[in-house]
Amino acid sequence: MSRENLIELAKAYVDLSNKHQLKKIEPMFMGDAIYHSEFFGEYKGRIVIYEMMVSFFTRFLDVYWDVTDYRPTEDNGVEFEFVMTATDAASGERVERHGVECIYFTSEGLISRIAVSKPCEQRQSL
């Protein structure tokens, strides 16, 4: 798959996430996909990932990811930095998180793995 196609798939994933269209996101994942986030933990399997996303979007009803630059990586991956903004439904507090996400795709264009990490400067201060 070309780098341009991989970037378009990553952009589509982020766009659907920003539109909160989880039913369209779920089939983008392989059945045994892995989602690992330094913010929220690790989830294995499309159904478990979908359930995590439903819970996440319930907690952050107005969540939005601002992404400006998508970069292809090794192993059919696309990496991008993001700023996530949302309101925590439980506390009413405004949340802003900066991070780096890498989405890995199969040759068929399904998501095999997502890795979300904190920016380097946040990891060094832990």
Discrete helix count: 4
Strand order of the largest sheet: 2-1-6-5-4-3
The SS-based structural class is alpha+beta
Based on Cα principal axes, name the global outline.
Answer: globular
Give the distance, in angstroms, between the N- and C-terminal Cα atoms: 37 Å
Number of E strands:
6
CATH architecture: Roll
* Beta-strand percent range: 35-45%
Order of helices and strands: HHEEHEEEEH
CATH class: Alpha Beta
Largest sheet: 6 strands, mixed
The proportion of residues forming helix, as a percent range, comes to 25-40%
**What is the oligomeric state here?**
single chain
CATH topology: Nuclear Transport Factor 2, Chain: A
Average pLDDT: 93
Kindly provide the radius of gyration, computed on alpha-carbon positions and rounded to a whole number of angstroms.
14 Å
Extract low-pLDDT stretches: 122-126
Indicate how many domains the architecture comprises: 1
Structure description:
The chain has one domain (3-124): Nuclear Transport Factor 2, Chain: A. It has 126 residues and is of the alpha+beta class. The protein has helices at residues 3-18, 22-25, 46-59, 120-124; strands spanning 29-37, 41-44, 64-73, 77-87, 94-105, 111-117. The chain has a 6-stranded mixed beta sheet, with helices on one face. Helix content is 31%, strand content 42%. The protein has 4 helices and 6 strands, in the order H-H-E-E-H-E-E-E-E-H. The termini are far apart. Strand 4 and strand 5 form a beta hairpin.
